[in-house]
Specification:
Blueprint (H helix, E strand, L loop, with lengths): L1 E3 L3 H8 L4 E2 L3 H14 L5 E5 L29 E4 L10 H7 L4 E6 L2 H14 L3 E9 L1 E2 L6 H15 L2 E3 L1 H9 L1
Amino acid sequence: MVIIDMQQEMQARIDAGRPHVHGDAPTRIAALVTAFRHAGQGVVHVRHAETDPASPLHPDAAGYPPMLCTTEAPGEPVFVKHSSSAFATTDLANHLRAIGSPKLYVVGAVAEFCVNSTVRAAVDLGFLVEVVADAVLGFDLPSHDAQTIFDVTMALLAADFAKVTDSAAVITSLHG
């Protein structure tokens, strides 16, 4: 499982009342993390770091640390990216190939940005991808509401890049 950008800044956006979908994604991700760890499956953490000290995602900023639901366990890798895709500025692809992980379950934030670009890059690199939609946060844009953006993003990913599933189905498959 690849967890993208579930950092304190995402919780701050929710707490500030920013329109979003799947505000319960942290709870779902926590359940998925538990299920993956229990099943002996890998959990990979990806964090976004900005170089601008004024950014809420600068490593010294309050928004940078992981949300509690995605704190890594000992031995779980953490990749720090400086781009939208988790593959463009990290060694994630080599790591996944080295551990023999051709299939990825992607969760995290934000659907229309880093989740979208990471899924597309993963497919281009030859990975099979399932997006766990109810464990993905989406936010609004000035021109469109959060639900519309999320729905269109998931539809585009499902049309040509990934299987879109939900956390209950993934957890059931891990137990079976």
